[in-house]
Structure formats: structure tokens, C-alpha cells
Amino acid sequence: MEYPMICFNGGRPNPDGTFSDRTRRGMISVIIHEVGHNFFPMIINSDERQWTWMDEGLNTFCQYLTEQEFEEDYKSRRGPPYKIIDYMKGEKNFISPIMTNSESIFQFGNNAYGKPATALNILRESVMGRELFDYAFREYAQRWAFKHPSPADFFRSMEDASSFDLDWFWRGWFFTNDHVDLSINEVNVLTGEDLKNKFKKVPDAFKDFINDETYYYEMTFENIGGLVMPIFLEFEFEDGSKVEQRIPAEIWRMTGDKVSKVFTFEKKAVSISLDPKFETADVDVENNYWPKKMVKSKFQEFEELRTKK
Ligand SMILES: [Zn+2]
């Protein structure tokens, strides 16, 4: 769909003047989208024929932000991480990396609109934070207004305007067709006493660290999907309280696809969840819990709903 063709857009009411919520949203979303194209690529003038994602992906991302500003709980079609899961876990032979010439991509909508928009949304909300992301994104737009940016110009501007090393993020989301699937492989719970027994004689350097009131959670994680992401955890304790831990993606830097880390708390945890707020588009959440828990599939949920009636 091209911007001047906005006059042919749908959104017509029924003959009696009524219209469904879906029609209304469809119309508002397309108007927001086409107006956005005044900026990407009409002013920040990337080459749509080479790299469709540079205008459609960035514009779909801006569309998502605008829709959320426009109305509380606006049901955006693209942007929320969970919406890209079905595409990313699909048959890899039919998923090209975003960084593929636009003549050669499968699934145009998911590849050039949905996935880059979702990636930027995740980058803003869960990796960089809104303030830093927005500063860098504006800087890119201002630097490249009335010029012809290529993908490298976008990647470079986002990094040097924010002082954030995002090579790992561009590589995973833009240069591969990997998906996100992190798992909790193992949790060893040790008490101070366990550690003292293990060490026999506790080295002086560890004396302050090892005490009887502390629980030590030695956790092993695995990157099954290949796409590197930060590790977001929620520990729930016996007294019902919860603590969040957010470990930057750099934890994977030297470790390959498995990594271990020790967490210490004065309370006993009853459960640990990985990506508890579904921020990362993790395609398999069944391996995200300790102790393991069954996660209902959409089909099971539907069956239960159906047989209840
Ligand atoms: Zn468009």
C-alpha cells in the first residue's frame, strides 16, 4: 500500500451508518501508517526497493507508538512481542533474515513490517529504555533527513547516539532468522551450610559472602533458539513476595549457548520464572519455569472452553 493511495482505503460504514470496532480500527491504523510515510521514507529517504524494512518496519513501529498514544489499550495489529511468535517459530526455509533484498524475501508483511517493528519495540521497552532509545532514534531521523540512509547508517546512528553496543541485537534480529527461546535448564539451591561443607575450609575471600541465612541459587540457562536476549527473571518467595532480576544480554558474550549465574537471597524461593512479562517473544515458554510447570497450548485452552459449554 502506498501513501497517496490512502484515498482508496477501507473503513466505510454499513448502509445504516453503523460500523464495527474492527472497521474503525482498521481505518485509523492505516491513516496513521500512511501519514507516517511522510517521514519514513519521504523525508528520511531510504531505498524501499532495496530495504523495505527501513521505511515499512520503522513506520510500523512509529504506527504502534502512535496507536498506543491515540487510545488506551488500542488493539494494535503489529508491535507487541507475542504477535511475532508464530512467524518466528515457523519453517526456517521460508523465513529470510530482515537484511535480505526486498525482491527475495518470504512473507513480506511479517518480514518487512511486523518483525522489525517488534524488534524496535523490544529494543525500546526492554533493552535500551524509552529515554535512550528515543534520543538515538530522533538523532537518526535528524541526521538522515533529506538524505539517503542505508541499513548501516541506521545501525550506526542508534549505537553511537546512545553509546550502546547493539551489534548482538542487530545480528540476531536483522541478520539471522533465529528465534528467541531461552530456557532454565537447572537450578541448584544451596544454603550457607551446604557451601561450608562443600569448601571444608571457607577461603577468607568468601567469608563475608557465605552465611547461614542466605540461599544460593545456581542457575544454568540455555539459548536454544539462537537469538541472544537479556535474561529477565522473577523470583517468588515463601512469603508471597517477588523480586525481579534483569541480566543484560552481555552475559552470553563469552559463553556460547549455555551460561550459569548465582543469585543470592535471604529468603527461600518457591518458584522462578524466565521472561515473566512475555517481553522477548520467547517461542517456547514451557522451559521458562522452575519448578517446571505445564503451559496450556491455545488448542487445549480452546478445548476446555468448548467442553465447558
Ligand atoms: Zn507502509
| Poorly predicted runs of 5 or more residues | none
Largest sheet: 4 strands, antiparallel
Helix content: 25-40%
Instruction: Output the helix-strand order.
Output: HHHHHHHEHEEEEEEH
Q: What is the SS-derived class?
A: alpha+beta
Mean pLDDT: 93
- Please report which band the strand proportion falls in: under 5%, 5-15%, 15-25%, 25-35%, 35-45% or over 45%: 15-25%
Write the layout of secondary structure elements.
Elements: H1 21-36, H2 52-70, H3 85-88, H4 108-128, H5 130-143, H6 151-162, H7 167-174, E1 182-191, H8 192-199, E2 215-223, E3 231-237, E4 242-247, E5 258-265, E6 269-274, E7 289-290, H9 298-308
Zinc ion is lined by residues 1, 33, 37, 56, 59.
Keyphrases for this structure?
globular; Immunoglobulin-like; alpha+beta; 4-stranded antiparallel β-sheet; Neutral Protease, domain 2; single chain; binds zinc ion; 309 residues; 2 domains
Short characterization:
This protein is of the alpha+beta class and 309 residues long. 37% of the residues lie in helices and 16% in strands. Helix 5 crosses helix 6.
